[in-house]
Specification:
alpha+beta, 3-stranded antiparallel beta sheet, two-stranded antiparallel sheet, 9 strands, about 35% strand, elongated
Length: about 170
């Protein structure tokens, strides 16, 4: 009904439909419908173009399931702190491992600068910025050293940071 109303009002309708083939198989189609008009602007018919997008939708659903499993995996890792930081060094994602190791909840740490994990001595020496600068130059950074928990106690950490780029090659964070 909505499609008919839109066709009457705008002369065009685009959307997805579920259709059945001659063999009763369901398929998803992307449908585009446009009125054909005579020289006076009066509709004399319509043109419909349907494209089978069933396989595309199937792949999208499979990808969605894969992403869910990936997020379950990353969220459940507790022996490692898997942390995402933006290009300025601000924490953008925090998982259970980070909470177990460092003591911060996600609410407490997201938006804070990664320098919060460095010792006061390293912060005074500008080590966090030096590490970020090296990361930007080399696209990957690894080190071992003392890091600080929420309760200000120290732990020895092996730190590996690598850049993350989108499909177009734009830097999105680390």
């Amino acid at each position: 009904e909505k499609a008919k109303e839109q066709m009457k009002e705008e002369g065009v309708w685009k959307g997805e439909l579920i259709q059945s083939t001659a063999r009763k198989k369901k398929m998803t189609v992307l449908s585009s419908n446009t009125f054909l008009k005579n020289e006076f602007g009066i509709p004399i018919g319509y043109l419909t173009v349907n494209r089978d997008i069933s396989e595309m939708r199937k792949l999208e659903n499979e990808l969605g399931e894969t992403e869910k499993l990936y997020h379950l995996l990353v969220n459940e890792v507790t022996d490692y702190a898997i942390i995402l930081i933006d290009v300025n060094g601000l924490v953008t994602s925090w998982k259970k491992g980070g909470e177990k190791i460092c003591g911060y909840t996600e609410k407490e740490i997201v938006g804070k600068h990664c320098s919060i994990f460095y010792t006061e001595e390293d912060r005074n020496k500008k080590q966090p910025q030096e590490d970020l600068d090296e990361l930007k130059r080399k696209k990957r950074f690894s080190t071992e050293g003392w890091r600080m928990k929420k309760d200000r106690s120290l732990f020895w950490a092996e730190v590996i940071i690598t850049e993350l780029k989108d499909n177009d090659g734009n830097l999105k964070g680390y």
